[in-house]
């Protein structure tokens, strides 16, 4: 009996010792976990306190209202800003640009660059067209050679190129108000109309080419300076015969249409098939221009007019202007005396010389 009791006592002591060891281990683990939790809490608290201090500093700073774009898809370059496109938000004054604008000074102005939603609006991003002039008119043209990739709302310079190679700017940085086929519309004042009328008559008399070149970044590029010098003799001719501008316009349009029809007739069936499928767009233009004598330095245009005589194949002034009666067919060589520039200058404008060719 005494042995059995001794063995039971030993088992009980072993169990108690094991329990104490397990309790100590559990206590150590608990202390370690609690310490980690406390460290993590302390770090979080420090971060929150820092954020709170920064927030208090921001609140204590002077706030300023800044206009931003709120249009869902943003605004595009050239768009006018309306009151519904703008919203004022509070921003710390330390972060506000120096050239920020007031809302009332923004409405009605135009943007130079694309502006996504929530973009702050500064003065360098805007421009204004100014008050609409009383002499501003919409003018359509069909005689201007246009770039192949021209779209409405783009800006162009209208230029005139003479057979001698001289090239002048007639209209600088004109916005394309509308573009339908080869008909282009500009807004022009009285000075622009007079310059363009002079250039049309000049092109009619001297077999020059009127064409347009588009701007790469119009809202950042400056307006080109007009370099075309209208001749006094052309001015006198316009004054003496008000219908000369209309006749010259019709002549240039007829000439342009005649060359276009010639280009179409010169295309082979293979070129037509490629062009219709879209695989050869631009190729047929190149081949036809080389056959009809386009100058290599001419820009790609719609319905181009060659700089040499399409009737007799000689470079220089044409022997006979194309009229509406001859626009459907291409006449053979019919050389007639051509007035030189000296003869033109010596004419008395207002009178019809005997050797004048009536368009």
Detailed description of the structure:
With 359 residues, the chain is an alpha+beta fold. The protein is built from 7 helices and 12 strands. A 3-stranded antiparallel beta sheet has the order 5-10-9. The chain has a 3-stranded antiparallel beta sheet with strand order 8-7-11, with helices on one face.
Q: What share of residues are in beta strands?
A: 15-25%
Number of helices: 7
How does the major sheet shape up? 3 strands, antiparallel
Spatial order of the strands forming the largest sheet: 5-10-9
Keywords:
359 residues, alpha+beta, three-stranded antiparallel β-sheet, 37% helix
Strand and helix map with partners:
Blueprint: H1 2-60, E1 63-69, E2 86-92, E3 110-111, E4 126-127, E5 137-141, E6 146-147, E7 155-161, E8 167-175, E9 178-180, E10 183-188, H2 190-206, E11 209-214, H3 232-240, H4 244-266, H5 269-277, H6 283-292, E12 301-302, H7 341-346
Antiparallel strand pairs: 1-2, 3-4, 5-10, 6-12, 7-8, 7-11, 9-10
Helix pairs in contact: 2-4, 4-6
Give a short synopsis of this structure:
With 359 residues, the protein is of the alpha+beta class. The protein is 37% helix and 16% strand.
